[in-house]
Design brief:
By secondary structure, the protein is mainly α. It is built from five helices and two strands; from the N terminus they run αβαβααα.
Length: about 100
Amino acid sequence: MIARGESGAAAYRAYTPGPNFKTGQARAFEDITLLTVGKILDFQKRGELGAVGKYQIIYSTLAMAVSAGVLGAQRMAGRVQFNKATQDKLYKLSLIHI
């Protein structure tokens, strides 16, 4: 229910362009589920991506999850693929901590 209002038909591949998004980047973000969490964070930090994924996760939430070890050891979390399983895990854990 929440996800439908957030990401629409794009679901896990959804993203909101950031303030520094360049039109030519659209192809790179065609399927963000193929990117790693580290890459997503880099793009968000540079303002090229805004909220991402089915649950429209913003930079501060994703960075906090990595720092808290939600995706495993912090040094390894950046290598985790931002796929369906990762997005669902982040969403479920965010509900627990609200």
